[in-house]
Amino acid sequence: MHGTKILEEADRLMTVCNSCRYCEGLCAVFPAMEMRRAFSDGDLNYLANLCHACGACYTDCQFSPPHEFNVNVPRTLAVARAESYAAYAWPRAFAGTFARNGLVISLVAALSVAVFIFGFAALHDREVLFGIHTGPGAFYKLMPHNAMAALFGAAFLYAIMALAMGVRAFWRDIGEPIGMKTDARALLQAIRDAGELRYLDGGGVGCFNEDDRPTDRRRLYHHLTFYGFALCFASTCVATLYHYLLAREAPYAWWDLPVVLGTLGGTGLLIGPIGLLAERWKRDSILVDEARYGMDVAFIAMLFLTSLTGMALLILRETAAMGPLLALHLGVVFSLFVTMPYGKFVHGIYRFAALVRYARERKAMAQGTTLE
Ligand code: SF4
Ligand code: SF4
């Protein structure tokens, strides 16, 4: 007996697949499944988060509908995966945010942007809000640096804490001991697999869409989004070091490292999400969890808006639009931070944890041992 209907269905499918094993070369899910004879809730959540939703095993399956076995691994694991996000959410009271996630994220973003815009308008004269501010410290005429650092630092730390608690619960549920010794080789393997999105390649041909012609575009747009996000994060870190170690205040020149990193990352974060959205529309509805469409779109939209408002601020920072644009950008970024643990962002964290587990299992298997 499992905790939910979808885990019952995932168990049924994994039992069928374990007898068939036709798809074992497609991705990590099937080899991980073959290491088990029975599946606990944690095992199924592990397999669900190991799945990259390429769709290949549906197209290749001789038991997919209309066959009476009704095997649809991609969609079943997609639903189980989405339900696992709510199951591991911290604090538990916020698990409900994963239902109607698109609406929740939109409301939080709208509220956050409104608070920043009205806050700036209430705290500053027209001359300051629409004034032209240039040179070091220009942004801090609208919002003092210490207030910015305290507010965003607190939101970021909260997001990290909530994500860490969620992944801790997942980690324990999938059978990994919390105090696991650091396994550098498995960690490196997982970093490589995640960095390459190795299992998003449909067994080498690409992701499957509505027209049954697999392509690698989804992987490309994922890369642009992920590395774009990473570069923007690196830009923020470098700017923080500039501020505290070198006493150099933003905004920085076009050629300076934080701006170069932010521009490169921001470009990736504009193209990647648009591409992901286009690919999401093209996906065959039989392969995906249509009920979570809002969650997918909300996350993509938040990343896109973060980049769009950041790039607009960069381009127009020496004009009268800087004040309103700064409020808009800060509002979007703040809502991105506080909603990170309660939206599609978590898929990257849980998938990475599942890849670490998988690397450890493979290593143990190669050594002829089992995980403790
Ligand atoms: S998805 Fe279908 S073909 Fe693939 S292992 Fe399962 S039952 Fe076999
Ligand atoms: S959808 Fe792709 S990644 Fe997921 S189980 Fe099937 S083949 Fe593996």
Could you describe the 3D structure shown?
It is built from 14 helices and no strands. Helix 1 (about 5-20) packs across helix 5 (about 75-85), helix 8 (about 145-175) crosses helix 14 and helix 12 runs antiparallel to helix 13 (about 320-340). The longest helix is centred in the middle third of the chain and has 29 residues, at about 145-175. It folds into two domains: about 5-85, no CATH class; about 90-365, no CATH class. The protein has about 375 residues and is an all-alpha fold. The mean pLDDT is about 95. One iron/sulfur cluster binds near residues 51, 53 and 54.
List the topology elements.
Blueprint: H1 5-20, H2 29-34, H3 41-50, H4 56-59, H5 73-87, H6 101-123, H7 126-129, H8 145-173, H9 184-196, H10 217-245, H11 257-282, H12 293-315, H13 322-339, H14 346-366
Helix pairs in contact: 1-5, 3-5, 3-14, 6-12, 6-13, 8-13, 8-14, 9-14, 10-11, 11-12, 12-13
The structure holds iron/sulfur cluster (2 copies).
One iron/sulfur cluster is lined by residues 16-17, 20-23, 57, 60-63, 71, 73.
